[in-house]
Amino acid sequence: MKFLPLIAFIIITSTSFSQTKMLPLNELIDKNDSGWKSVKEIAGTAKNKIEILPVDSQKANDALYHTQISTKTTMGAVIYKTGGILVDNGWIRILGSGSAKLNRSLPDWNKGKTFKEFGEVPGYLLIADDALGGFYILNGGALGTDVGKVYYFSPDNLEFEPLGINYPQFLDFCFNNDLDNYYEGSRWEKWKDEVAGLKGDQVFNFYPFLWTKEGSDINKVSRKIIPIEEQYSLNIDLRKQMGQ
Q1: DSSP, res 25
Q2: Sign, Cα dihedral of 225, 228, 234, 236
Q3: Confidence of residue 107 (pLDDT cuts 50, 70, 90)
Q4: Which has the least CB within 10 A, 13, 41, 176, 235?
Q5: Contacts 24+ apart (CB under 8 A), 188-197
Q6: What is the crossing angle of helices 74-81 and 167-176, to 10°?
Q7: C-alpha–C-alpha distance, residues 152 and 186, integer Å
Q8: Which of 118, 98, 170, 182 is nearest to 139 (CA)?
Q9: What pLDDT, on the 0 to 100 scale, is given for residue 242?
Q10: Rounded distance between C-alpha atoms, residue 182 and residue 88, angstroms
Q11: How many CB atoms lie within 10 A of CB 213?
């Protein structure tokens, strides 16, 4: 897959991965909404279709507390101020505090995958995913020395691909980048119609697998809708079987 370099215009230092003590909610909320202002600034330039999902205050409080990230950061703001964000008619799903259309909060989705219990320091966090069965990951140190940078767990090679961008830049990538170019060769005919009917906890599963020679043509493989939990587990298991 292709990645177009982005110009960094917001730089943050994430404190989430060094956090060892569970801070109370009031210490995580920035009264000046600085993180949310940054998110709105990025969204205001959006060239791609985005849908900021409504937030439930109790879910937002729980998600922010469990993630232990300040709303001064863009990631904390997305968790606290949104139920999630859908990009390109739901092709990309950016995790927030959960909503009817995206019934997964960022901390709940990560629990049991990147950490066992809330308050633990994760080696990485799953921050978003796509209808293709790919997962966007924020590195906390487990994937390399570039802590705070985003990787793509790609379904067409089962590798963690470094994108060289931080979380604010990832939002800009989703909102403004040419996604048709980035996903070139991975979008089939009439994909928009099918993705429109996809639930936020579902993805398309392809056979033959996209990382095989037989699965290299997206228009010639069979596909079915499965739970995203099943797809993630399958990707991890296949990596292990391949010795990656």
Answers
A1: G
A2: positive
A3: very high
A4: 13
A5: 188/218, 188/219, 188/223, 189/219, 191/91, 191/131, 192/89, 195/89, 195/90, 195/91, 195/131, 196/89, 196/90
A6: 60
A7: 14
A8: 170
A9: 82
A10: 13
A11: 7
Between CA 141 and CA 170 the distance in angstroms is 18
Structure tokens at 170: 């990832």
What's the angle, vertex CA 175, arms to CA 118 and CA 31, rounded to 5?
A: 50
Average pLDDT over the chain, rounded to whole? 91
Mention every residue, 6+ apart, whose C-beta is less than 8 A from residue 33: 71, 77
Nearest Cα residue to 176 out of 6, 54, 2, 1: 6
pLDDT 10s digits, 225-234: 999 999 999 9
Alpha carbon distance 1, 133 (integer Å): 14
Number of residues assigned to the chain? 244
Sign of CA dihedral 241, 199, 174, 39: negative
- Contacts of residue 137, Cβ cutoff 8 Å, sequence gap at least 6: 124, 125, 126, 127, 143, 150, 151, 152, 153, 160
The token pair at 92 is: 């990309």
- What is the structure's pLDDT at 243? 74
| C-alpha to C-alpha distance for 223 and 85, rounded to whole angstroms | 25
pTM over 0.85: yes
Q: Residue 167 and residue 177: Cα distance in Å, rounded? A: 14
* C-alpha torsion sign, points 205, 206, 211, 212: positive
Matching residue, tokens 């101020």 = 81
Nearest 5°: CA angle at 70, between 179 and 36?
50
